[in-house]
């Protein structure tokens, strides 16, 4: 998998478990008795009969081909796992709502198992394609003091379909995930055979995804024609990346990320981490014990908050940024009374942080640009026409001209070139800034 997957997966994990368990993390809490708020694909007919949710989600995203594009990725969701609690009566086991033995306590509860189905790389021209998804049923027994825990899972069936059609020089990719289980009669069966927290991570090779939130002007009309059903596709991975797309059941922005101050999952986006952590710390020992007995993930939250250091707590307070801070400077002007050979002239410039304006956009190290070699290009430069590159440095010459050092996005040796400082150089009018959404 390409770079950016770890970052995208971290966000996808937060999406997968969003709403899984809400403060105060106890099974007795009313809001934890009506669960699975996001990305639920119910069995066919469940929505119409009022026992479950709609059976599908679908998304349309735009791909700009940069060669022969291929698409791959994963479909991710939760499978409900019912945890039954049974007391040992010697000759038989009796189902109960709660079992306690010494300091240990267990409640009857619905857990979840993570499921992930790979989408093998497929050339976009080879679409349409349908991928069958099947997750087997399961039954596990765990012996505990005074009884046993019986975990049961129903089998899941679904289908992923992918198709493509051209649109204004782009490719409009349509993906749909549909629950294909047998119809059910009640709510318990419906949720047991549902795909929960369903979302997709898609990757394109030989092309790039186009932002649907802030599409470039030439793609705005095509982006407006894309239709979404029960999902929200956004660019994933680090800012500037266009090879990953997260099809999320909740609204996000392009290139979402987990705040570095966040020390772990809380599953409850209705609260700020700091406030929710403080509320957990004020729970009584009895309330904490009830949360631990409800779910192992709740126990992890309680334990993490109980052991949080003052420094970690202070980190949750966030970062203060000056909204009025000026933008970093461009290439500084050399004082008129300083000659170009004077060491003071060299000390005034910093190629790794200096910038230049191109079509009103600030271009500096880390910017992504499309290359358009012009009349100054030699035969080798022409091979880079329309390629995407990453800016590594900005230089000024003694005649007042500017030069932009870049490495190609798809060059496997790009990191080595950066380490050596071995760049390709272009003038500002030979690059087209790929303006990203500000973070």
What can you see in these coordinates?
- The structure is a single chain.
- Strands 1, 2, 5, 6, 7, 8, 9, 10, 11, 12 and 13 form an eleven-stranded antiparallel beta sheet that branches.
- Helix content is about 15%, strand content about 35%.
- The model has no long low-confidence stretch (mean pLDDT about 90).
- It is built from ten helices and 20 strands.
- A hairpin with a 2-residue loop joins β3 and β4.
- By secondary structure, the protein is an alpha+beta fold.
- It is globular.
Quick description:
The protein has 439 residues and is of the alpha+beta class. The protein has helices at 5-17, 46-49, 187-192, 220-224, 273-281, 285-294, 296-306, 310-315, 343-347, 414-420; strands spanning 56-88, 93-96, 98-101, 104-107, 109-123, 129-135, 138-144, 147-153, 156-167, 170-179, 196-210, 232-235, 244-248, 355-358, 361-364, 368-371, 388-396, 402-408, 424-426, 431-433.
């Amino acid at each position: 998998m390409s770079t950016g997957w770890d970052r995208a997966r971290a966000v996808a994990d937060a999406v997968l478990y969003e709403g899984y368990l809400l403060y105060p993390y106890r099974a007795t809490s009313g809001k934890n008795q009506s669960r699975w708020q996001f990305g639920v694909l119910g069995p066919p007919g469940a929505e119409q009969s009022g026992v479950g949710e709609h059976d599908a989600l679908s998304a349309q995203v735009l791909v700009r081909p940069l060669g022969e594009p291929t698409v791959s990725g994963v479909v991710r969701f939760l499978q409900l796992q019912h945890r039954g609690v049974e007391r040992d009566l010697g000759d038989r086991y009796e189902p109960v709502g709660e079992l306690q033995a010494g300091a240990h306590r267990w409640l009857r509860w619905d857990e979840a198992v993570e499921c992930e189905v790979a989408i093998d790389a497929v050339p976009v021209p080879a679409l349409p394609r349908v991928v069958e998804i099947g997750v087997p049923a399961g039954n596990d027994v765990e012996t505990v003091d005074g009884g046993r825990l019986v975990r049961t899972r129903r089998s899941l069936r679904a289908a992923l379909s992918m198709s493509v059609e051209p649109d204004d020089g782009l490719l409009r990719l349509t993906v749909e995930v549909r629950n294909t289980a047998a119809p059910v009669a009640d709510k318990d069966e419906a949720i047991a055979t549902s795909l929960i927290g369903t979302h997709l991570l898609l990757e394109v090779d030989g092309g790039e995804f186009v932002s649907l939130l802030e599409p470039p002007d030439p793609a705005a009309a095509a982006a407006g024609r894309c239709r979404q059903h029960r999902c929200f596709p956004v660019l994933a991975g680090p800012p500037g990346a266009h090879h990953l797309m997260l099809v999320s059941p909740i609204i996000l922005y392009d290139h979402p990320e987990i705040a570095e101050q966040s020390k772990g999952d809380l599953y409850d986006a209705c609260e700020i981490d700091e406030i929710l952590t403080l509320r957990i710390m004020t729970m009584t020992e009895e309330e904490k014990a009830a949360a631990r007995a409800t779910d192992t993930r709740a126990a992890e939250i309680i334990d993490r908050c109980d052991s949080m250091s003052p420094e970690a707590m202070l980190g949750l307070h966030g970062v203060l940024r000056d909204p009025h801070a000026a933008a970093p400077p461009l290439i500084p002007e050399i004082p008129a009374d300083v000659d170009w050979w004077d060491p003071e002239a060299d000390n005034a410039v910093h190629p790794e942080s200096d910038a230049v304006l191109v079509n009103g956009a600030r271009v500096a190290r880390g910017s992504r640009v499309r290359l358009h070699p012009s009349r100054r290009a030699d035969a080798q430069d022409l091979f880079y026409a329309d390629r995407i590159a990453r800016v590594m440095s900005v230089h000024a010459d003694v005649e007042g001209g500017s030069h932009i050092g870049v490495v190609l996005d798809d060059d496997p040796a790009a990191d080595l070139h950066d380490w050596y400082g071995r760049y390709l150089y272009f003038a500002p009018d030979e690059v087209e800034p790929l303006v990203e959404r500000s973070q």
